[in-house]
Amino acid sequence: MNAKTIENLLLDVKENKLPVEEALSILKQLPYQDLGFAKIDHHRELRQGYPEVIYCSGKTVEQVVDIVGVMFHKGSNILGTRATEEMYLAVKEKFPMVEYNKMAKIITLLQKKIQISDSYIVVATGGTSDIPIAEEAAMTAEVFGNKVERIYDVGVAGIHRLFSKLDIIREAKVVIAVAGMEGALASVVGGLVDKPVIAVPTSIGYGANFGGLAALLSMLNSCSSGTAVVNIDNGFGAGYMASMINKL
Amino acid sequence: MNAKTIENLLLDVKENKLPVEEALSILKQLPYQDLGFAKIDHHRELRQGYPEVIYCSGKTVEQVVDIVGVMFHKGSNILGTRATEEMYLAVKEKFPMVEYNKMAKIITLLQKKIQISDSYIVVATGGTSDIPIAEEAAMTAEVFGNKVERIYDVGVAGIHRLFSKLDIIREAKVVIAVAGMEGALASVVGGLVDKPVIAVPTSIGYGANFGGLAALLSMLNSCSSGTAVVNIDNGFGAGYMASMINKL
Amino acid sequence: MNAKTIENLLLDVKENKLPVEEALSILKQLPYQDLGFAKIDHHRELRQGYPEVIYCSGKTVEQVVDIVGVMFHKGSNILGTRATEEMYLAVKEKFPMVEYNKMAKIITLLQKKIQISDSYIVVATGGTSDIPIAEEAAMTAEVFGNKVERIYDVGVAGIHRLFSKLDIIREAKVVIAVAGMEGALASVVGGLVDKPVIAVPTSIGYGANFGGLAALLSMLNSCSSGTAVVNIDNGFGAGYMASMINKL
Amino acid sequence: MNAKTIENLLLDVKENKLPVEEALSILKQLPYQDLGFAKIDHHRELRQGYPEVIYCSGKTVEQVVDIVGVMFHKGSNILGTRATEEMYLAVKEKFPMVEYNKMAKIITLLQKKIQISDSYIVVATGGTSDIPIAEEAAMTAEVFGNKVERIYDVGVAGIHRLFSKLDIIREAKVVIAVAGMEGALASVVGGLVDKPVIAVPTSIGYGANFGGLAALLSMLNSCSSGTAVVNIDNGFGAGYMASMINKL
Amino acid sequence: MNAKTIENLLLDVKENKLPVEEALSILKQLPYQDLGFAKIDHHRELRQGYPEVIYCSGKTVEQVVDIVGVMFHKGSNILGTRATEEMYLAVKEKFPMVEYNKMAKIITLLQKKIQISDSYIVVATGGTSDIPIAEEAAMTAEVFGNKVERIYDVGVAGIHRLFSKLDIIREAKVVIAVAGMEGALASVVGGLVDKPVIAVPTSIGYGANFGGLAALLSMLNSCSSGTAVVNIDNGFGAGYMASMINKL
Amino acid sequence: MNAKTIENLLLDVKENKLPVEEALSILKQLPYQDLGFAKIDHHRELRQGYPEVIYCSGKTVEQVVDIVGVMFHKGSNILGTRATEEMYLAVKEKFPMVEYNKMAKIITLLQKKIQISDSYIVVATGGTSDIPIAEEAAMTAEVFGNKVERIYDVGVAGIHRLFSKLDIIREAKVVIAVAGMEGALASVVGGLVDKPVIAVPTSIGYGANFGGLAALLSMLNSCSSGTAVVNIDNGFGAGYMASMINKL
Amino acid sequence: MNAKTIENLLLDVKENKLPVEEALSILKQLPYQDLGFAKIDHHRELRQGYPEVIYCSGKTVEQVVDIVGVMFHKGSNILGTRATEEMYLAVKEKFPMVEYNKMAKIITLLQKKIQISDSYIVVATGGTSDIPIAEEAAMTAEVFGNKVERIYDVGVAGIHRLFSKLDIIREAKVVIAVAGMEGALASVVGGLVDKPVIAVPTSIGYGANFGGLAALLSMLNSCSSGTAVVNIDNGFGAGYMASMINKL
Amino acid sequence: MNAKTIENLLLDVKENKLPVEEALSILKQLPYQDLGFAKIDHHRELRQGYPEVIYCSGKTVEQVVDIVGVMFHKGSNILGTRATEEMYLAVKEKFPMVEYNKMAKIITLLQKKIQISDSYIVVATGGTSDIPIAEEAAMTAEVFGNKVERIYDVGVAGIHRLFSKLDIIREAKVVIAVAGMEGALASVVGGLVDKPVIAVPTSIGYGANFGGLAALLSMLNSCSSGTAVVNIDNGFGAGYMASMINKL
């Protein structure tokens, strides 16, 4: 196709339909389009209803409001992660339809209807303290158009809680296992299901937990095959990856 | 179905078709089947042609030969990872049809025809030293019935090599990015494709590489969304996970 | 016993005392009970006076009050660890009989009389700064029905203080050694007594202490046999483990 | 008793039965006996059949043979851990009755009958590669007079294997959980039994396992109460601690 | 020259123009001057317009004001890094011409005209959060008399942004690459340009970023030649080093 | 002497000057005295003017005031390290003669004249930010009766500053080198003097300094012989050790 | 220039001098050339006499011989780093003119005369054990056409050795400071010269050196401005970077 | 003295006894002598019988033989640390009077009588495996002219062994405490004696010992004052430092 475009351009030059200067100016922009960089940049909006994402942490309240404004006027759905309540309130003043999930620290401003998948993603947590990260993953997946089943507080210290939900977990297309402490949930789930498991270590714990390092190493060393790991507390990354897989 | 089985059993008891003792003995075995554990155990063989896997590292030559023997007589396809040449030769003596990929340290003994997927997995490496781990991933995926495209030595120090293969990479259903040193390949690939990327840090490097830690941390902190990470040098895990995703 | 229950159920079905549907519904719940999960879940209450435990850290004040409420109405004794004074005051408003140990950050709400063991647990500390963690261990053990002897500030910098208490330490059934800094107390105690020693590293220290890592590694490498270690600052875990051993 | 001894000595001095010089010389040795040091030193032999332990690692073959010789002539049972085959053969030349467990790297030379406990210790492993460390623990416990049940290769990647042994595990007085990789076995076992669990991380694994660090941190951060941890690969320490608990 | 000075002195002594005592006293001070220490101390002022630098972090407001005062009266240009707004305001009260870059936390007080180089330094960042450190580098370089081109937010997650600036980057004499997260920018830039690259890891990130360690290790292990690294967040050091190189 | 005491006691018993009960009660206290523990406990006061030390960090204001009170009434000189201003003010209310060095965070309450040594200790620092730790070392040494020479801000970035003080440093009996950042001062000083050097790493620095780890490792690996290291920021420990050496 | 090429091509098409198919085929290769990738790829050979580099570590002897062969036939100068003696001998068999520096583990095969710079690079080491890494740096720089002055064994333990070479060091255009142990050389040199210093930590040391980590952290935290650091033992990287700077 | 030398030189110039050129040439070498560098270099030989030290590790056999040769012909006593048996044999061939301590890996070649101190150094170890490092310390101290008392295998697992040697330890002028595992010996000794303690962590241990890190951190965090630490396994450094202190 692209080659075709160039061929046509050359033919136009040959046939004097296109001045050399103009052809030159078109060709000078080709490389990036040819490489598809623009696709990367804009591919989300191209597909209807896809959200744009703001990682709010480390940005000022004003910056967040400004970025939301720009995206809003493009008509995009907007997902803001790690947003403080202060940010939410500032955005709300200008865009009253914005919504805030305090636990997940997520702002959403939906202008277009989201298509929801038939297959679903399970988001499971070891404890209740892992829920904020799990919610970040779950909401990210939902805003990207995935059906999500939440199965919280099913850690291995009381493994029967996990077993009572096994049917739902096994029917999922992909599973996100969120756990702090020793992060054993990922291994146990990985051993019980035959689907890709995305493991999210959380920084929940103390002492020799070292800010989530214990769970991270545990998950990376999982003896269950079919598990891959994202950064500590990276609920967004897990939700995004799971969405990619669920949409395949 | 299972509930149906129990119902029938109860009806049989009620109608005196089944003695209570016999029913009791059947019911005592129910829990595990009901939980589906057996499924886990045997699900691979149930699907035709699926291989059984032996992690050979840390096993003696005799143990490997014995396990191959057991699997062979079940008629399974067999995949042995991290196998030494000595192991291969010992297996070959008994099972002459076994094959060995010296670079990937993989033994394969295929008794059934493998169904190959239409969609494919890309396995890319940063350097030539990462190829053994990449081969472990690629062969694992192939033995599990996936089509694999190998794109080796496309690290970021000469990024044009990567760009010349972008078309093939973008058409894959899932990408495995294998890299040592600073592991930047995963981030760059993650930024260029719209498919799940499984990042495999390798232990290639020296000094402040700390046995692959540099690449591991780099990949976990990737600023590109849609990337998840497996353990250092865990080609098998990446191949297995990619196979799961590709087969969805 | 459990087999007996199923046998009776089958007999009831056979003799038409129990409709098949009802039997089916009972049997569907069996697996977990058969596996004993329920035992895990409820075993504490089954034994008279056993407390239920709330790990308050990371929970909101409201969550703590709610959980206490649920447990209170089951008639349980309640132990809340890592509770802030604010949590205590909020609980007190609803349950005036609650008590608070500010140093140990422990809430207790005892509705049933606790049976106290004859044998006792020694809780020893290296310094005075280790006492909060030691109190967490000691109170946990006490609420679980153990006699506890506290021997504080007997660190190795003035080892004669430890020796003057040796008789009491040696008569204990199990010893908890709580120490920060270099954590040498565990090794010295381990070398002097012929009983299991549970070592608790604390985060007391500075500089190359790295938040308790120095004491943790020291205790894990103890040259004295008969010592095992819990997480840094995990007084509750040590008290719980010691209680298990003391009750054997 | 000791006070009695001193009183008698003083009376003997008073009654001129004992010269002052002799009394002085006796009293000068008192402190250590009074502090019970001698008890520490010799307490094992005092109880019939108790073994003496040699940590062979880092000793020369000659040193091991010499130490065995000294112990043998005291009539002690002897346990040598981390012994090489070369050490075993050298010892065997002089003491043909010595036995060697090659997997556990343990030498035993038993001259007295060992009394075996009624209650038993369970030694469980996650994988087959953990068995050498498990055997070190099990044989240590056995030589110290404990009944041991071995339950190997019941890791969480196939958790039904563990469940099928739950009855035996739950009847134990104390459980030793030996696991490498991510070490999740300890948490799962800890959540299923109501007995003290001694967790032994092993150095089995690769990459981000960092020589057992992953399993160690995982076990220290276990969300299951009633678990304490010994050093990586410290099977002897776990067996010794379990023996202490089982003998209470 | 220096040898000449001594020779003259000796001639003066020989010719009785200089008393021995005086010559002795002069010679006793020689070593430091001979070694050039004084040059080190004062060399910046010797070259016209060179700034003096204050590292404000860890100093009190009063100390900063005092040091600025001393430098001001020497007529120097002054650069204060890591200065708080409070420091700026206190300095401003006494020296109203002082300027403050809030983002870079830099105070400048320029009394002499700075000569600007023809060749330029590129300062590039991966994300917007890296800009404060980049500004510290850029302003340092500028105050030292270098032309600087800022190219911000060109991280590898959207690599086309970087390519669109490649011409400007390639014409620089030296490039400063500032990046947090996984720090891949340095490797990619290093692979694209044929000039020295100074890599500045930033502490931007979370979880397994470990305060910039991920980016630091990534940059140290860069597979691109021609890259050297400064401390995490050390914008000043990078600016200073780049200035040295640009001025060669 | 001690043996003599026992001999006399025995003679007294023999000669009926001392009842057996009384002798027994005296002898029961002997062990600790015989082992010299009491010496340890009280040896500081025994030597005239020696201070008692309070490590104030982690203690409450009330605890500090109480301990000062007890020490004061024994007539001791008192040294309180890591004391907050609030602690100082609270102590001052009761003991107006107390003095406070705000920079060193040291409280002193001297009731007896301190004997000052002839030989002296040099306390040198790399930068000005290291001075608080250096003052803790210097004041500790002074209160223990040592003459101290302070040589501050002589770090290796401007090594001529150090050389200009070399004479004073070389005449010291022991040198304390206090430095943060890369801690090179200790090596350079160790290479220039022929006296014991006590190196104190400080937590001054940022980024890859890791809270003083860089300086600590640097000092432990010093290529200069005659250097030993104390914990990060442990000025007191260095002052105490230097005092011990200076008083030999 | 490049735009000119395209313009000419278009004119040729227009004027029928170039068939459309041929033009298309040329244009399809444009992107990379336009982006300058080819420059990167081939720029070294373009400048006369520039060497091609082989990082031999991790390659087989055959691979090294093959790569040398390819390069040789392009007429390039060849630099092989981290080459074993075995590799050298194998290469020599085919290319007898190859030379080997055993200490630096460097193979050179020079077919074109190298132009040597007027300005020079100083390569300094702390000890004699650092010389192999220093030689790797020095030879790399030399093969790239730089004059190099070696100043070895001038570590800070005997700082006068360094001072006696200060004149030569100060006249260099760039300094490479190679040191293991505590790596203080970089800071001291950085404080004495007014030129860019490239610090190379080596893995020389033991114990708390942790394979060069001590020197690495020390150099990253250098209190001397104008210093940047390469990976542990990365002599090649330092030589390459210094060459880039020296050639500016 | 030095000033006198210069004065005389000036007088000679003045009185024409010395040509200006010659005086100039002498003065040009002055700086280093004036700074006393030469003293550093040669001070050991200046004092009668002082040994020269060779750190043999990382040197070739030939290098060691050569260095010994140079030192021998200066008439020095020679101490070679970390020498292999092969080195010893090669030296012996040329200098038959050389002696070798295989355990300490120390070569000594004494040509002058060593003056032995009256006061003594105690070298104590925790276990028998620490003895090689202890011997390195002890022999270093002895060759430097110190009387040494060895007290080996007195670790805290059997603390009575230490107490039985307390008299000898307390009479020492300085104590070297050598220990691996958890390194508690240093703290216990530091709490029992009133003399400077030099702590030497050894790499003896396994698992979470991390090559001596556990003992190192333990010793740095010692709660006993008067302790300073040298690098892991640095027996020579401890012996040198102790010698410095003992000779004060």
From TrEMBL, chains A, B, C, D, E, F, G, H:
Q: What class of enzyme is it?
A: isomerase
Keywords tagged on the record: Isomerase
Task: Tell me which residues make up the PurE domain.
Answer: 119-248
Keyword Isomerase belongs to the record: yes
Q: Which GO terms describe its biological process?
A: 'de novo' IMP biosynthetic process
One Pfam family this sequence matches: AIRC
Q: What protein is this chain from?
A: 1-(5-phosphoribosyl)-5-amino-4-imidazole-carboxylate carboxylase
The organism encoding this protein is Clostridium formicaceticum
**Taxonomic classification, please?**
Bacteria, Bacillati, Bacillota, Clostridia, Eubacteriales
